[in-house]
Amino acid sequence: MRTLIELENMEFKAFHGCYDLEKKVGNLFRVDVTIEAEIGEAARNDSVEQTVNYLTVFELVQQQMAITSNIIENVAERIIDAVHARFPSALRVTAKVSKLAPPLGGKIERVSVTLTK
Length: 117
Known about the structure:
This protein has 117 residues and is an alpha+beta fold. It has one domain (2-116): 2-Layer Sandwich (GTP Cyclohydrolase I, domain 2). 33% of the residues lie in helices and 37% in strands. The longest helix is centred in the C-terminal third of the chain and has 15 residues, at 72-86. It is elongated and about 50 Å long.
């Protein structure tokens, strides 16, 4: 049974960006992760060990957000790779990383990048 596991609107303060000020002051980011996985056995057996544990996914995202990157595309790719490495049952992982109120010289809510592997 294919299942979608979604972690939505995780919020982190991080220091990603190509400008020195962004790396010094930081910014708020939101991250959404969607994992398509084959977890029929986990559902039948009511087994946390056989599923994609969303606490572990949150911790993986938190670890990747703590590593400063110039571009959020790099952050999204590292998140996806970390999830795939930890959960071989993950068939497809999508990560959306959004920088809130980016310093673009005008009013803008967010800029987002979405990657899928």
